[in-house]
Amino acid sequence: MNKFMSWLEDSFVPKANKLFSRPFIAAFSSTMQKIIPFILTGSVIYFYNVIKSFVPVLPDLGPILTYSFGIITVIVAFMMGNQLMEKLGHPDYVINAGLCAVGTLLMVAMPLGDNADSISTLMGNLGAAGIAVGLIVGLYVGTIFHLWGKLHFLQDSSCPDFVTAWINTIVPNLITLGITMVLVNVLKLDVYSLVIAAFMPLANIGQTLPGFILICLIPAFFYTLGISSWTFGAVTTPIFMAGIQANIDAVAAGGVATNIVTSESVFTMAFITMGGMCATLGLNALMCFSKSKQLKTLGRVFIIPSIFNINEPIMYGGKVVMNPVLMIPAWLNSIIGPVYVWILMSTGLLNIPSKMIQVGQIPAPICSVMITEDMRALLWWAVLFVIYLAVWFPFFKAYERTKLAEEAAENE
């Protein structure tokens, strides 16, 4: 174990941090973080609509949803182009590349054929189902602006600075939009559908039990190494968004939700992330009653954030990160959680979420009932809490013995 931890700390973690800090990967991660306010805006309206279903006299706030979360692909395209310029060191292009990405996306997302004049089809393409397209468009635009920026065109010329700036924006705009025009309007390629088709195998794998486990385990594994789970948002967010949007559409059409792997199932429901990623609420509860004065104090300080599914304090302050004793149960819980949720939802023992509510800081099991609209969530949450507690217990007691020995040595 010591050799394994030394390898993780001295070799694996530095290399992983170096990889995730590379501009293109960092831009994906940063983009996912910056679109969260717009996702949460939509979540608030979906939550409001739950209340409105019981109080029909409340006003319709649908337009707020339509022009925030409803155009999330536009926001993703802008932010991806913007963040690429920031991470690649082109401050003069951060706005222009983002705006060009919006124009490029609109050209790509514009309906073709029989739906050419359909505003509803266009709005559908700009919604959650097209996030993968927004990312690819932003990447494409950002790459062209980056390559042009490396030329330093007219850098030492006698042209006024504002003229140079105009030229260095116009040329990559023309190149980007010109290539897109040739693909869409000359070659008649449905670029939007091609990107979605290329993404579908990944989305389909994500909607399987093995994919579900990996989606939960990989970010948890890196989280225990001190690497933020936001890094993986570029992969998981399109899967989550496509899944919940399909569930919403299916229920609206009179069908049933079938996609289990959504952000609502992973985060909002607070089963898999009970107390936060790695399901640390059980650990926090054990700490509150520890024989170690230090652990008991920390546990009682951290319990309020844990109830609201915020676990950075316990992960770093309670020393789960890079702690070989507590990392193992954190990994185990990240497998147990998705398997447990998959069994419940696939067998009909718990409703599959069909509303997009991504406010992950609502205490459980209140949020569990709210997101599933199923009172059985109370029972299944309590059962899972006991399971998590049992997983944490032997590892926590081993860690507690170490802390007690340290405290005894200090007293002596």
From TrEMBL:
Enumerate the Pfam families for this protein. Answer: PTS_EIIC (PF02378)
- Membrane-crossing ranges are 24-49, 61-81, 93-113, 125-145, 165-187, 194-222, 266-289, 325-345, 378-396
Q: How does it sit in the membrane?
A: Multi-pass membrane protein
Where would I find the PTS EIIC type-3 domain in this sequence?
8-395
Q: What is its main location?
A: membrane
Q: Which GO terms describe its biological process?
A: N,N'-diacetylchitobiose import; phosphoenolpyruvate-dependent sugar phosphotransferase system
**Which key words tag this protein in UniProt?**
Cell membrane, Membrane, Sugar transport, Transmembrane, Transmembrane helix, Transport
Location comes to: Cell membrane
Any one GO CC term of the record = plasma membrane
Q: Cell membrane: present as a keyword of the record?
A: yes
Q: Name one GO molecular function term.
A: protein-N(PI)-phosphohistidine-sugar phosphotransferase activity
Q: Which residues form the signal peptide?
A: none
Per its UniProt record, what InterPro entries does this chain match? PTS_EIIC (IPR003352), PTS_EIIC_3 (IPR004501), PTS_IIC_cello (IPR004796), PTS_Sugar-EIIC/EIIB (IPR051088)
Q: What does this protein do?
A: The phosphoenolpyruvate-dependent sugar phosphotransferase system (PTS), a major carbohydrate active -transport system, catalyzes the phosphorylation of incoming sugar substrates concomitant with their translocation across the cell membrane.
Q: What's the protein here called?
A: Permease IIC component
**What species does this protein belong to?**
Holdemanella biformis
